[in-house]
Amino acid sequence: MAKDHFVIPVFVPHNGCPFQCIFCNQNQITGQADNPDPAAVDAQISTYLDTIGDRGRQVLVGFYGGSFTGIEQKKQAEYLSVVLPYMNTGKVQGVRISTRPDFIDDDVLDFLRLNGVTQIELGIQSFDDAVLLSAQRGYTSLLAQNASVLIRKRGFLLGHQFMIGLPGDSWDSLKRTVDISLKLQPDMIRIYPAVVVKDTPMERMSAYAPLTLDEAIRRTAYMLDRFLPHHITVLRVGLHPPQDNSSIVRGPYHPSFRHLVNVERWKIRIRSMLKCIGPQSIKEIYVNTAQACCIYEQKECDKAQIYPVEWIDPNNVRLVTSENQKILLSLNMRISN
Ligand code: SF4
């Protein structure tokens, strides 16, 4: 299937951020990347647009890398003014920024609206005050909730970014975080498992134990199972591969984290289905080609004939049991972009 949504990513680091979240290596953020020149951003957008062509596609420009609304407003305006001509000519349909919840208020939203921003992602991390405090995020859960309400009220698309497994985080706080997020109706989410990065306050916290990879997979699978039925777009699951592998000291980093989470979600469903059908085994499995790799990794399916096909929806799987019972499982497996 041809891709019809594109995000042109522009990296704008928040140099001189006045905070020190325990998981963040500010030197890495501020030392390795300079703010790009607006002319360079313009050239980047133009090159991307040439590459992707213009038939039936939606294009966003996404400003990532830090708290966009924390940088000098004159600089924000310079970046956004680069995108406006592309929006006016219909070549770009929107602008996405990411920022901290405490860098949002009515004036900020007025400015963003005027300058073409359509989507705002908030680095929430957790809606649990104890977790926010231990992570030294510098705002409360209530403030993050109010910022979310304001963004939605003003007609922007809302994104929530979560970091799971921070000090003090637990299944209970995770469930509360998901409950609160769902009430705020985000349009999109990202989930990052917390890892210990070199030269961060977290590296010096000897008592802190990051999640194991298995636990991070289980918690992320739980989150997807809560968010996806509400048609919330999952923009990202798992950390981007680091430029330097040695920058991650410990924690649940895996280059195929998203795939492992999907395997886990299949495992849960197939096991619960097998419980329902009793002593029968699975004889045949019809699965969308894109999801077949997850099925090959299921122990319960190793004796089954697996048929990767295009005609079955990626959210569904069709099973034939040893007693020829035909079962259509609706899994809501898709991770959309
Ligand atoms: S993660 Fe925290 S410390 Fe790092 S740039 Fe963002 S707000 Fe600043």
UniProtKB/TrEMBL annotation:
GO terms for molecular function: 4 iron, 4 sulfur cluster binding; catalytic activity; metal ion binding. Transmembrane segments: none annotated. Keywords: 4Fe-4S, Iron, Iron-sulfur, Metal-binding, S-adenosyl-L-methionine. It comes from the Bacteria. GO terms for cellular component: cytoplasm. Residues 1-231 form the Radical SAM core domain. InterPro entries: ELP3 (IPR039661), Elp3/MiaA/NifB-like_rSAM (IPR006638), Radical_SAM_C (IPR032432), rSAM (IPR007197), rSAM_horseshoe (IPR023404), rSAM_sf (IPR058240). The keyword 4Fe-4S applies. One of its GO terms (biological process) is tRNA wobble base 5-methoxycarbonylmethyl-2-thiouridinylation. Its cofactor is [4Fe-4S] cluster. PROSITE patterns: RADICAL_SAM (PS51918). PANTHER family: ELONGATOR COMPLEX PROTEIN 3, HISTONE ACETYLTRANSFERASE-RELATED. This is Radical SAM protein. It comes from Candidatus Auribacter fodinae.
